[in-house]
């Protein structure tokens, strides 16, 4: 069952070959057995999950089913879930039990999916390795001494190790795509505004976007169908007609199904900076796409080199303000002893936040300060506009942009932890997408030294269904995405 | 001694009378138990997001139109970042570079003078909660409480140019603004409950100097009296400080009503750097012309236009017109009275509303909206005065009856029930007078010998005999003819 697609699991549930309780228990058992060495989960609540599974079984018995009814899904601990501890990977919220559901969570609840547990993440999603979590790092199932990527590393490790059929993540600068690449998964960051941010603890509001982490593009489509949709509680949510993101995945394999597709290859994705063994796999994937009928178009994204710099102004600026609410006054951590109000603030935040979060709050506070705002924040916003313009120009020449997701395969735990700039550069290929608000995917494209690598596909606004189809075609003729880490089958 | 010129600009926080908060669905009603009107958004739980209340925007548009300002087609919400326990998010959502209203002006009157005060801008923002330091019970000694019921209440911050030159002008401005925001229905104007709060920026400079002096900002003045006292004190303090060889440091100060003094709260050095930036959770506020025109169509006639019309149509003096347009309710009441009494009686109506009714309301501490007598009732009474049915002194009795009747009776009913009609009928009066003259030959003789006093005594006798109902003018005329 653990290698079944979500559609097959749904079929098995619908035909009563397995119950949701059995399925949920199977995964809970795997978590109990295998998670101690991975640390993919922050919170597992067996009874609560099984109660949801029982309710799902009743729905299944009634025939009141949707595609995800009865399927256990793991959620990044950034989503508020009613009555569940929701920590965002921080000491600051270690004692926080949410009194409400994020829109993403309630959509899964309405679909009858089972909340399998809350997964580990970099503290407040700030990181690319899941090492900044207050709950300790998560290990990569493909090599336990390596990182799973981040910040959605817990979700990625859980799905890769088959501790969950699928999971949610959030992507502010690559936090779904990079862990997907490092853990051999398919992950999508949708167009900004497609998935509601309500109840998703904010890191950088203008960049944050939730999306699926799964074992195939087809599974991603099913998850996205559940997650996406207008939400009046999020003013940046887009009011668009509902669409079926799986609608283009039904065609049979064979022939040259992608004939006429123009794949753009930006020179900035193929220059220095990417490890040669990863680049070899990307080249092979391009050859595969040519086999499927696609043609390739060389192009340039001239301002992409500025994206990391612009991102590390905008994201910390927004974060410094978003995280101001964690002040020890109303909920969450408060320092046990303090002299006065200012001392309470200082000690609470000094003790409640980890080093990387503090670093970004300081950067963000600095760039918004009087006298620096124009030089940093406004300048970064201008670059952001230029990057979006670069992509707009690129999509006049091609239908999809292709390149590596991450410049390397999974690095060792601790390898980059002491060097924030090296860590920031691991998102060099993913960040521009968030700045422009575009949809993008990462899908498995092979192994280098036994470690998975990811292929990134970037689409124009609202082309999620097309992207999923392009990914799906590749997965019909390759089996990289079916590979399972040793010891987790 | 040098002459000093005082320069004052005022920032006013006006709580908008919307049913729900500016970025959440919580009620804005005043007076609920602490934190009962604070939902997940108001207390800033992790993950919550603001959604703009269009009713608040509509209030801002109303104000912009009422002061002749420019309603911005596009304005931006910005975050004003600072830490305080009653500010749940650690930032206030406000507007900074692109406010919803720019420019405009407000005419003020003080004594015989009129002046137009220019407005810089008006922007939308959310109110903070309140810190409670007392009344938390014996177990809470030394602790402070937070009440977030007020957090998220919509505010319109209205910023004037530094156009005022005295505390009197400042108070006249505040009063005019207070009247306007109530007139256009965007604020209940309740100053005790904090619905209308002023900050005054005060500086002084030698007369003739063009550059502005260094200003100090007096925060949170919630009564016109405090505004006047605070500015008066601040001005004399600044002048005394400079004349003693000192200089003014830019500062934020608080007014202590008990001592009547201002004292510095924080200096420029420890002023906050609010690190404003556009709020990424909210889209730019786009107001199209259609929306503006829709709001314009729903605006009541504005006070200045109303005054002009009352002067032209009702023949009122400028003073009366100003008094009767102090609030929309009063102006509407007055005009409804005129409708009931007849237009030709508009001036009597003005007197009754401004004198008799005003005194009654004042005595009972009521607003015009809670008048014990309706405009229709009052107009009906005035019609009976005007057509001679009752005398003015009788009318005062009927007025009192009406006030006590709980809106249930008309003046005509009370007059009929109590037989208060004036006796103007000549035959009845003549009969009375004949009896009286026959019974008082002494008084008649006195009058004939040239004592005018005796005539008045005779009139008084007739009035007494009719319990005041005789038409005194008619009685005089008939008496004179008899005694002729």
Automatic annotation (TrEMBL), chain A:
It catalyses: L-glutamyl-tRNA(Gln) + L-glutamine + ATP + H2O = L-glutaminyl-tRNA(Gln) + L-glutamate + ADP + phosphate + H(+). One of its GO terms (cellular component) is glutamyl-tRNA(Gln) amidotransferase complex. The keyword Nucleotide-binding applies. The active site is at 76 (charge relay system), 151 (charge relay system), 175 (acyl-ester intermediate). GO terms for biological process: translation. Heterotrimer of A, B and C subunits. This is Glutamyl-tRNA(Gln) amidotransferase subunit A. The gene is gatA.
Automatic annotation (TrEMBL), chain B:
Its EC number is 6.3.5.-. The keyword Protein biosynthesis applies. Keywords: ATP-binding, Ligase, Nucleotide-binding, Protein biosynthesis. It is an enzyme of class 6 (ligase). Allows the formation of correctly charged Asn-tRNA(Asn) or Gln-tRNA(Gln) through the transamidation of misacylated Asp-tRNA(Asn) or Glu-tRNA(Gln) in organisms which lack either or both of asparaginyl-tRNA or glutaminyl-tRNA synthetases. The reaction takes place in the presence of glutamine and ATP through an activated phospho-Asp-tRNA(Asn) or phospho-Glu-tRNA(Gln). Belongs to the GatB/GatE family. GatB subfamily. It comes from Candidatus Accumulibacter adjunctus. Gene3D superfamilies: 1.10.10.410, GatB domain, N-terminal subdomain. InterPro entries: Asn/Gln-tRNA_amidoTrfase_suB/E, Asn/Gln-tRNA_Trfase_suB/E_cat, Asn/Gln_amidotransferase, Asn/Gln_tRNA_amidoTrase-B-like, GatB, GatB_C_1, GatB_Yqey_C_2, Gln-tRNA_amidoTrfase_suB_CS. Heterotrimer of A, B and C subunits. Transmembrane segments: none annotated. The keyword Nucleotide-binding applies. SUPFAM superfamilies: GatB/YqeY motif, Glutamine synthetase/guanido kinase. It holds the Pfam family GatB_N. This is Aspartyl/glutamyl-tRNA(Asn/Gln) amidotransferase subunit B. GO terms for molecular function: asparaginyl-tRNA synthase (glutamine-hydrolyzing) activity; ATP binding; glutaminyl-tRNA synthase (glutamine-hydrolyzing) activity; transferase activity. Residues 332-483 form the Asn/Gln amidotransferase domain. It catalyses: L-aspartyl-tRNA(Asn) + L-glutamine + ATP + H2O = L-asparaginyl-tRNA(Asn) + L-glutamate + ADP + phosphate + 2 H(+); L-glutamyl-tRNA(Gln) + L-glutamine + ATP + H2O = L-glutaminyl-tRNA(Gln) + L-glutamate + ADP + phosphate + H(+). It comes from the Bacteria. One of its GO terms (biological process) is translation. PROSITE patterns: GATB.
